[in-house]
Design a protein that fits this description.
By secondary structure, this protein is α/β, with parallel strands linked by helices. It has 6 helices and 7 strands, in the order H-E-E-E-H-E-E-E-E-H-H-H-H.
């Protein structure tokens, strides 16, 4: 049964997809981070039989860059290679920053770009006082936010991730006026590539 004036489910879904695309575009336009920065990767996707951890079937790898005590940028990546991760770091951070990462070998060349502190863990806990708790907290925030969906279409995952980053970066503000504002100011032609992207 349908009521006059109530949008259909596909129309509602298109509207929310448009909101997520605007959020993702807004995050994509952020100026490069500087200062103290945490970098890390995480995998997203439901539990499946078979291989666990990195390389598990159906998982999406997400790379994140967090400006400590501030903002996050996160985006799906094809893999964990040094070329891809360092390429994102060069594009989205300023030289001379202080980088905190885990001991994944892809980050080895960061010392050339700025100061680099490697976090080593013992039984899952960082050794010493250095840490990357900020970005690990974001992974928890993002997965908690996605959990109620019980899975999202892979082709739209980048839009959900863009929305989550936008919400995290404005976590101390009233989000609704901000979303209305970006809907008003964002040109549909600018977000069209985001709407059709498939990872």
């Amino acid at each position: 049964m349908r009521f006059r004036g109530i949008a259909s489910a596909p129309a509602i879904e298109r509207f929310f997809r448009l909101i997520r695309a605007c959020c993702a575009y807004e995050e994509h336009c952020r100026v490069p981070f500087e200062g103290t920065i945490e970098c890390d990767e995480s995998s997203f996707g439901g539990h499946r039989k078979g291989k666990r951890g990195w390389g598990a079937a159906g998982k999406i790898i997400v790379f994140g860059i967090l400006q400590r005590n501030g903002l996050i940028q996160a985006f799906p990546v094809q893999g964990r290679s040094g070329a891809e991760l360092i390429g994102h770091i060069r594009e989205r951070t300023r030289p001379g920053s202080l980088y905190y990462t885990d001991d994944w070998h892809a980050y080895a060349s960061l010392a050339v770009r700025g100061d680099h502190i490697v976090i080593r863990k013992d039984l899952g806990r960082p050794k010493g006082r250095d840490h990357i708790n900020g970005i690990e907290g974001f992974w928890s925030y993002a997965k908690h936010w996605l959990y109620p969906y019980r899975g999202v279409p892979r082709k739209n995952f980048h839009l959900y991730l863009g929305e989550i980053c936008y919400r995290f970066n404005h976590r101390n503000e009233d989000i609704f006026p901000l979303i209305i504002n970006i809907l008003k100011k964002t040109n549909i032609n600018k977000i069209q590539p985001l709407l059709v992207r498939i990872r």
